[in-house]
Design brief:
Blueprint: E1 2-5, H1 12-27, H2 31-41, H3 49-59, H4 62-75, H5 79-86, E2 91-94
Antiparallel strand pairs: 1-2
Helix pairs in contact: 2-4
């Protein structure tokens, strides 16, 4: 499945950042699933980064945490920025071309 963000009505910078994330997800296996889970789990940073990371570790397996770390490294975003960028942005899941 291809994971694409709906870019309508977003600022140019927000669109560019989301396209950067999409491109990196296409290059890093399993990272799209990790981003989808980030959107679904409702991460909040009001308790601090350490508590947020502990919560995330309960939601994602190591199988998906490693691709998430690779995605963060590839895009240059930190976890909080990534969550803010993808939060409340609809996604489209498309089937792979046959």
């Amino acid at each position: 499945m291809n994971f694409q963000f709906v870019l309508d009505d977003l600022s140019a910078q927000h669109q560019a950042d989301l396209l950067t994330i999409e491109k990196a997800m296409g290059e890093i296996p399993r990272s799209a699933y990790a981003v989808f889970e980030l959107k679904a789990c409702g991460l909040r940073f009001h308790r601090g980064l350490e508590d947020t990371l502990e919560f995330l570790k309960t939601r994602l397996s190591a199988f998906h945490l490693v691709p998430l770390e690779m995605l963060l490294e590839s895009t240059g975003f930190d976890l909080e920025t990534l969550v803010k960028l993808v939060k409340r942005v609809p996604v489209i899941l498309k089937a792979r071309p046959q």
